[in-house]
From TrEMBL:
<feature type="transmembrane region" description="Helical">
    <location>
        <begin position="42"/>
        <end position="63"/>
    </location>
</feature>
<dbReference type="GO" id="GO:0006865">
    <property type="term" value="P:amino acid transport"/>
</dbReference>
<feature type="transmembrane region" description="Helical">
    <location>
        <begin position="16"/>
        <end position="35"/>
    </location>
</feature>
<comment type="similarity">
    <text>Belongs to the binding-protein-dependent transport system permease family. LivHM subfamily.</text>
</comment>
<feature type="transmembrane region" description="Helical">
    <location>
        <begin position="135"/>
        <end position="153"/>
    </location>
</feature>
<keyword id="KW-1003">Cell membrane</keyword>
<feature type="transmembrane region" description="Helical">
    <location>
        <begin position="236"/>
        <end position="257"/>
    </location>
</feature>
<dbReference type="InterPro" id="IPR001851">
    <property type="entry name" value="ABC_transp_permease"/>
</dbReference>
<feature type="transmembrane region" description="Helical">
    <location>
        <begin position="98"/>
        <end position="123"/>
    </location>
</feature>
<keyword id="KW-0029">Amino-acid transport</keyword>
<dbReference type="GO" id="GO:0005886">
    <property type="term" value="C:plasma membrane"/>
</dbReference>
<keyword id="KW-1133">Transmembrane helix</keyword>
<feature type="transmembrane region" description="Helical">
    <location>
        <begin position="165"/>
        <end position="185"/>
    </location>
</feature>
<feature type="transmembrane region" description="Helical">
    <location>
        <begin position="310"/>
        <end position="328"/>
    </location>
</feature>
<keyword id="KW-0472">Membrane</keyword>
<dbReference type="Pfam" id="PF02653">
    <property type="entry name" value="BPD_transp_2"/>
</dbReference>
<dbReference type="InterPro" id="IPR052157">
    <property type="entry name" value="BCAA_transport_permease"/>
</dbReference>
Amino acid sequence: MDAIILQILNGLDKGSAYALIALGLTLIFGTLGVVNFAHGALFMLGAFCAVTFSRLLQVSYTFTDASRTDFLGNPLQVEVPYLYDILGESAGAAVIDWAVPISILFAIPVMLLIGVIMERGLIKHFYKRPHADQILVTFGLAIVLQEIIKYFYGANPIPTPAPDAFIGSFDFGAMIGFDAGSIVYPYWRMVYFGFAAIIIGAVFAFLRFTTFGMVVRAGMADRETVTLLGIDIDRRFTIMFGIAAAVAGLAGVMYTPINSPNYHMGMDFLVLSFVVVVVGGMGSLPGAVLAGFLLGIIEAFASMPEVLDVLPGINQIIIYLVAIIVLLTRPRGLMGRKGVMED
């Protein structure tokens, strides 16, 4: 039982990232009808927003401390972040320590702006073009963004640690009555799951309970009628593209302590996120979230040593096998609208 619970936790962790990325993809496809192969790059850009913000906080100057010497006996050169002079040493150190969660405030406007620029500058020209054209141009954009990040940040992963308060593991087993140490899980992975749940809930609440969201949902169902009512639905869809970019970016920001940011991390998640969208149902927001967590849990159980001993490598292909089975039996996906992908 403890192994099962541990794999469920692993699945929820992986599923959180899948669900957040797939949610943004589905928002774009549902509103604009665009297959956005650059969405994984938005996840990567969010991660590098956290890296950039962390580096900005640690910009420092050097001074010579005559009271201390290095191993050669020379006065010690000390690096002091400018933030220490602005906030004080203790407060400055605390802000640097919490750089990843604080960088959310930096990433939101940056990712919204990137999303709007992408939509207005490129995507809008491909609304009425075939999906193949959309895939090619957005995939090309993803490669360009990837190479830009590689040029400025290098090819190696950049460690971006979680705050000290969340380093270590939580004895989940002891809390629910199992033996101490039987189910130990990293604090930050639990934080990531909670964060994903909040973002997903906020997106659904925004679409369901705000006037803006209701108009967007109406536009997703019948764009022409909403336009005839005098509503500028194109402007609202542009904003939704920015929101989808921000969701992907925030997923990347909070994922940095789990997987050190690197220039190809967007591509690593891109294919998996599209599989999630297809399994959940093209254009179905609940389907994207459900499929994200479902496939995350399936992948976690397929990674158990007991399973790998019987079926080596099954954890690498299990998601694709599930996708094949779903598409053969239900082409529109688990929660897709009737007629979508069924022609």
